[in-house]
Known about the structure:
The longest helix has 27 residues, at 62-88. It is built from 4 helices and no strands. The chain is mostly helical.
Amino acid sequence: MALAPLQRIDFDQVLRMFPGQEHSIRKLLVGDVLFREVCDDYMAALRSLNWFRSLPGSDERLEVAEFTSLSDSLLREMKAIVASNLNDLDPAER
C-alpha cells in the first residue's frame, strides 16, 4: 500500500489554525518538541487522509476512517497543548 509522501510541518498552516494566538503558537513551535511532533504527525495524517480520499472507492476504504480518526485525535492533542500553554502564560504574553 502506497502512502502519501512525507513532508515537514507547514508552520504557516499551524499558525492559521489558531488565529489570534500567533505569539503562543510560535513559542510552542520553537520551544516544545512534543507540540512540533504532534503538529508534524497531524499534517502527515491529513496528507494521507487526502490521498486516500482521492482514490476510487474512497467512501469504502478503511484507511479513510482510520486517518480521519487519527487526525481528529491529533488535533485534539494540539488544542490541549495550546490551551495548557495559554493557561501558563502571563496575559501580556498571549
